[in-house]
Design brief:
267 residues, alpha+beta, 5-stranded mixed barrel, 3 helices, 33% strand, elongated
C-alpha cells in the first residue's frame, strides 16, 4: 500500500482574525493615522497673504540687489524706469498629509533670498498638531537692460546694432545683466543668444586687460585718500580675476584688473 503525503492548508492565526473582527464590530478604523491627517488646501486668501508678504520683502531688498545684478558704468544714466516685481505662488507637495489647522501663518524663513526660485514658510498657528512646511514661489524683478536684437552665434563679436534695450527679468539668472552697450560692443560671445534674450555678463568672454610682464598702473584708495604707483604684472590681468603685481619698490601685491594696464588694490 502506498501513502501520499499531503500538506495541510495554511490558516491565519485566530487571534488576528478575532482582532480584526472585533475592531470592525466596534466601528474602529484600521488605520487611524491616515484618518487623523488631511490635505491642507492653499486657498485664494492664503495665496494673497503669501504674495503680499513676498512682494513687501522683495521691494525692501531687491532694489539694491537688482542694481548690483546689473553692470553699469560711471557715465550711465541713472534715470531708469522703476523696477517691476511679480510673485508667482506655487503649490505644496501633493504627498504631504498635514493635520487640520484653523489658522495658517506665512513667514519668511531665516536667510531666504527672494530672487528667482525661492520659498515661503507656512506654519500652523492654531491646530491640534502644529506643523511647518515650505511653499515654493518664483520672484521676478523686471528692469531695462540689453537684449539680443537678432540671433547671435557663439564667438560673434558684438556690434552696436546687435543689441537693443528691453525689459528683462533680472532674477531669471544669477549672472549680472548688462545695461550699458559700451561694456558689450567689441566683446566676443561665449555662447549663442536667441533674439530678445537678455545679455548677461557670463555671455561675454572676459577681457584681457594686460599680460604677464606688462608695466601696469597700481591704484589704491580709502576713506579720504587715494594713491597711485606703478609695477610689473606677474600674472595676466583677466577681467573678473585677481592679478599679482610687483611694485617698483619690490613689494608683491594682489589686486583686481579694472582697465587697460590698471590694477586696483582693496584696502
Amino acid at each position: 500500500m502506498k501513502f501520499r503525503r499531503t500538506t495541510p492548508p495554511v490558516r491565519p492565526p485566530r487571534c488576528g482574525g478575532l482582532l480584526i473582527t472585533s475592531l470592525l464590530a466596534l466601528g474602529l478604523p484600521l488605520a487611524s493615522t491616515a484618518q487623523e491627517s488631511a490635505d491642507v488646501a492653499v486657498d485664494a486668501a492664503l495665496v494673497e497673504q503669501v504674495r503680499e508678504l513676498a512682494l513687501h520683502a522683495t521691494r525692501q531688498s531687491s532694489s539694491a540687489q537688482a542694481h548690483a545684478a546689473a553692470v553699469p558704468t560711471q557715465t550711465q544714466a541713472t534715470a531708469e524706469p522703476p523696477l517691476r516685481f511679480e510673485v508667482q505662488v506655487g503649490a505644496l507637495d501633493s504627498r504631504l498629509r498635514l493635520a487640520p489647522c484653523q489658522r495658517i501663518e506665512p513667514y519668511l524663513p531665516p536667510g531666504v533670498r527672494l530672487w528667482g526660485k525661492a520659498r515661503i514658510g507656512l506654519r500652523c498657528a492654531l491646530g491640534a498638531k502644529p506643523w511647518n512646511v515650505y511653499l515654493p514661489i518664483t520672484v521676478r524683478v523686471f528692469g531695462q537692460a540689453l537684449v539680443a536684437a537678432n540671433p547671435l552665434p557663439a564667438g560673434a563679436t558684438l556690434r552696436e546694432d546687435d543689441l537693443r534695450r528691453a525689459e528683462v527679468d533680472f532674477a531669471e539668472d544669477n549672472a549680472s545683466v548688462v545695461t550699458d552697450a559700451s561694456l558689450a560692443v567689441g566683446r566676443m560671445l561665449t555662447r549663442p543668444l536667441v533674439a530678445g534674450r537678455g545679455l548677461r555678463q557670463t555671455d561675454l568672454k572676459p577681457r584681457l586687460w594686460f599680460a604677464a610682464g606688462d608695466s601696469v598702473k597700481v591704484r589704491a584708495s580709502g576713506p579720504g585718500f587715494s594713491v597711485a604707483g606703478s609695477g610689473q604684472a606677474l600674472t595676466p590681468g583677466i577681467e573678473g580675476q585677481t592679478a599679482r603685481v610687483r611694485t617698483d619698490g619690490g613689494q608683491i601685491v594682489t589686486g583686481t584688473p579694472v582697465g587697460t594696464r590698471v590694477v586696483e588694490l582693496s584696502l
